[in-house]
Amino acid sequence: MNVVITGGSKGIGKGMSAEFLKRGHNVTICSRSQKDIDLTVDELTKTSAEGQIICGTSCDVADHKQTKNLWDFANEKMGSVDIWVNNAGRDGLKVKFVDLPPEDFRMTVDTNVTGMMNCCQVAIQGMKQQSSGGRIFNMEGFGSDGMTRSRLGVYGSTKYGLRYFTKTLVKECEGSNIRMCYLSPGMVVTDLLVPPPEQRDEDWEKSKKVLNILADTVETVTPYLVDGVLAAENNGDAVRWLTGGKVMRRFLLSKFKKPRDLFSHLGA
Question: Which of 155, 160, 164, 224 is flagged as catalytic?
Answer without folding.
Answer: 155
